[in-house]
């Protein structure tokens, strides 16, 4: 069980997360959705100890969550200049004994001996993903992992997430498009006004679009009609 209790974060006095609570099952895949600026990355940054919250606690399987429990794929990764993909991977511990880099080089079509500065956005994303997968962690946090990936890599990532779940990992993923979340998640949680306001289980996935957009569609259509 991953329990997040009364989590609050502000930037320059402006609250972003406010007394946020979320309890989710370990060993499952959880989608996090919310509008731009809702606080998804901030929430992930707190889980990964990149941002310190003003208040709150995070308990994983009965103990405070440690940053070493988490493998974190950030929205935008930092890469040192003049490194090849392989040199970048060597920075990270290889604690996942099952991880087969040669197989992944082929699967993801990644040329690890080229300088990272020659990589496309999607190639950089794949490289950061490999750095994460080579580590044996109980919790995987993926912030917009599908951004920048081609259709085939999107499908590959969906399959990777499913395999992580089968290995008993707890996975949290954010995305701006629902489709990949519907394929990978056991639950989807909606972040709004600094809190989680709604959770959708798999049985509700076929209706999630209608539920999320019912009000928005009406408001937006009338606004757009006036504006265009
Ligand atoms: N380091 C920071 N300093 C100041 N404000 C910040 C900082 N990080 C985030 N914010 C603000 O916190 C709010 C939430 O940002 P966050 O990036 O967490 O949202 P998000 O839901 O991930 O957005 P998006 O969907 O656009 O990626 C935004 O208003 C953002 O401007």
Automatic annotation (TrEMBL):
Residues annotated as signal peptide: none
UniProtKB keywords: ATP-binding, Nucleotide-binding, Transport
KW Amino-acid biosynthesis (keyword) present: no
Organism this protein belongs to: Adhaeribacter terreus
Residue span(s) of domain ABC transporter: 2-218
Stated name of the protein: ATP-binding cassette domain-containing protein
Record InterPro entries: AAA+_ATPase (IPR003593), ABC_transporter-like_ATP-bd (IPR003439), ABC_Transporter_VariousFunc (IPR051782), P-loop_NTPase (IPR027417)
GO molecular function (one): ATP binding
Pfam families per the UniProt record, alphabetical: ABC_tran (PF00005)
PROSITE patterns listed in its UniProt record: ABC_TRANSPORTER_2 (PS50893)
